[in-house]
Design goal:
The complex is a heterodimer. By secondary structure, chain A is mainly α. Chain A is 75% helix and 0% strand. Chain A contains 11 helices and no strands. Chain B is mostly helical. Chain B has a single domain, classed as ABC transporter involved in vitamin B12 uptake, BtuC. The chains are: A mainly alpha, B mainly alpha.
């Protein structure tokens, strides 16, 4: 029993790391631009499929490195052509725009790569379990957590110490002042969107190795990411990270005792958080918009 | 008092709707398509009561729509085969759902409100998906049928007569629209508009803003669940997709497409949406991307919707 619980907690952390990676990207875009990006799941799936198509030529590692960048480049184009037209309007419109994009993504992926799910090849030494007693822990899961940890650390370093990151954080607090101080806000939002989409693409490649590829792979992950943001608190990136891990573990533990509710439990958690702390666990009081 | 000219639009609209079963076959439609327009129009108008007239964006109304649909189906399947019982149970389930969820989220605003409504909508999706023994899971709730309405003196056979069912939906839409219009004209409705225009000023005027938003949310959920009941009756079937966030998004798109600041906008939007979906999906499997592209273009270039454009042209 202990082993089962341990397994599910670990598994929950792994899944939670995933949610967190996706939610961090969503959060970045939401905080700076006020856009709920429904197409995030579509970008995630695109990253996964790009890595899949690149793998025969540049291998697993090449796909892991390049696919997220290509996804991010596409994200930057989409922002430049479509989303930036709607800044300053009611958030309703950008929401509907990305909702339409999500439709296009789903069909586009189905058209290009087929509706059937396909397996994604990972290096053999990653696919085997770590040891006989830890049979449930494949090398790939550990590898995934390491990559996520590295990506999150890199993100917080960028936000903390680079000029771009400092501007993003400042823009989140007060975009007008940042603009008045001579920062090109259009470029800033554009790059920030690209950064968020990069995280989605990375999450996609990692997810592909664990779950395989299907056009709806992003759909399964986007709702938990929303919940992660709400539980963690809107406007707080560390909160989003914590929220992702927390709901991952909660879902993992529920899978032991009451498997039917493993999806529903995160929404129950969200309801509880909203009742007790409407701003989320780490949200700033008074910043409910 | 509005001039007759202002009323020609709605009068024409209702004449068209009232005679639809007679002219639809000649323009390539069928009665079921017309009924679909009515049902989704009711849902879109319910969403718009909140979105267009209270200024609150709910992206999770599929929850109440789906509760209505499943409530009706399950009542007929498990309790007693009666269409009126189905309506009662479905609407009750949806309204109570809206009351509870509304109370939890009424303090939130803007993007945050929208996100929380999206997320809550998914709970019901998973319940319907997982609880296979009761809801039929992914295959949907089957094995039941809508039942002819028996008024004692006359029998309204909505089961075998599609045109009769069309008129039942039209009556429901008419009564609901009248009720919403009356509510919007009342002092309560005017205070909702005040909240939409300037929430802070509404607070200072002594309007209990949160309670009013909650009431508007519940009213909206009530009509959305009625639409859900009719939706389940339409195909004698309901599946978890009625709860899905894409369904919620479709309602909002319909409202915006038609013009969310006009009362009849969502009806026009629903008609455009349903007809487009029907036409495109009969030509290609990839209808979703075409519909999605249409949404994107509509949002970027015609954010006011069909009726909004017409109104603007008349004013200028």
């Amino acid at each position: 029993m202990t082993q089962v619980i341990l397994f599910n907690v670990l598994n929950g952390l792994i899944v939670g790391a995933f949610y967190a990676l996706m939610a961090l990207g969503l959060s970045l875009i939401l905080n700076l631009s006020g856009v709920i990006n429904f197409a995030h799941g579509g970008f995630l799936a695109l990253g996964a499929y790009l890595a899949y198509s690149m793998a025969p030529y540049i291998g697993f590692w090449g796909g892991l490195v390049f696919a997220p960048f290509v996804t991010a480049a596409l994200g930057i184009i989409v922002e430049h052509v479509l989303i930036r037209r709607l800044y300053g309007r009611d958030p309703l419109y950008s929401l509907l725009l990305t909702f339409g994009l999500a439709y296009i993504f789903q069909d586009g992926l189905r058209y290009t790569w087929g509706a059937q799910s396909v397996p994604y090849q990972i290096p053999g030494w990653l696919a085997s379990p770590l040891s006989a007693s830890l049979f449930f822990l494949t090398g790939y899961r550990v590898f995934m957590v390491i990559i996520v940890a590295l990506a999150v650390a890199a993100l917080f370093l960028i936000l903390g110490y680079t000029r771009l990151g400092i501007r993003i954080r400042a823009g989140t607090l007060d975009l007008d002042t940042v603009s008045v101080l001579g920062v090109n806000v259009r470029v800033l939002r554009n790059l920030n969107f690209g950064l968020g989409i990069y995280l989605a693409g990375l999450a996609g490649v990692l997810a592909a190795g664990l779950l395989g590829l299907s056009p709806t792979i992003g759909d399964q992950l986007i709702m938990p990411s929303f919940v992660a943001i709400i539980v963690g608190g809107l406007g707080s990136l560390p909160g989003t990270l914590a929220g992702g891990l927390l709901i991952g573990v909660a879902a993992g533990l529920t899978a032991v005792f009451f498997p039917a509710a493993q999806e529903a439990v995160i929404y129950v958690m969200m309801a509880l958080v909203l009742l007790i702390r409407p701003n989320g666990l780490f949200g700033d009081a008074g910043r409910v918009q | 008092m509005k001039s007759l000219q202002d009323r020609t639009g709605p009068i024409l609209l209702w004449l068209l709707l009232f005679t639809a079963p007679f002219w639809m076959p000649y323009v390539g439609g069928y009665t079921g398509l017309g009924t679909r327009v009515l049902v989704l129009a009711l849902a879109a108008m319910a969403v718009n009561f909140l979105l267009g007239f209270t200024g609150v964006l709910s992206f999770g109304h599929a929850a109440y729509f789906g509760l209505g649909a499943y409530g009706a189906g399950m009542a007929i399947k498990y309790i007693y085969p009666s269409s009126s019982l189905g309506i009662l149970v479905g609407v009750l389930a949806g309204t109570i759902g809206a009351m509870i969820i509304g109370a939890m989220i009424v303090r939130l605003r803007g993007v945050y409100f929208a996100m929380v409504t999206i997320a809550f909508g998914q709970v019901f999706y998973f319940v319907a998906f997982r609880w296979v023994s009761v809801t039929g899971g992914d295959d949907g709730l089957t094995g039941w049928k809508r039942v002819p309405l028996d008024f004692g003196f006359t029998n309204f056979d909505i089961l075998h007569n599609d045109v009769a069912f069309y008129y039942l939906c039209l009556i429901c839409l008419a009564i609901s629209a009248a009720a919403m219009a009356l509510l919007l004209r009342s002092p309560f409705g005017h205070s909702l508009l005040a909240i939409r225009e300037n929430e802070r000023r509404a607070w200072f005027l002594g309007i209990p803003v949160n309670r009013h938003i909650w009431m508007s949310f519940v009213i909206s959920g009530f009509f959305a669940s009625l639409a859900g009941v009719l939706y389940a009756y339409l195909d004698n079937f309901v599946d978890p997709r009625a709860f899905h966030w894409q369904q919620s998004g479709d309602f909002v798109i319909m409202a915006v497409l038609g013009g969310m600041r006009s009362f009849w906008g969502p009806l026009i939007g629903a008609a455009v949406f349903v007809v487009l979906q029907d036409k495109i999906s009969s030509h290609t499997d990839y209808w979703m991307s075409i519909l999605g592209l249409f949404f994107v273009l509509a949002v970027v270039f015609f954010p006011r919707g069909v009726l909004g454009m017409i109104k603007r042209r008349q004013e200028s």
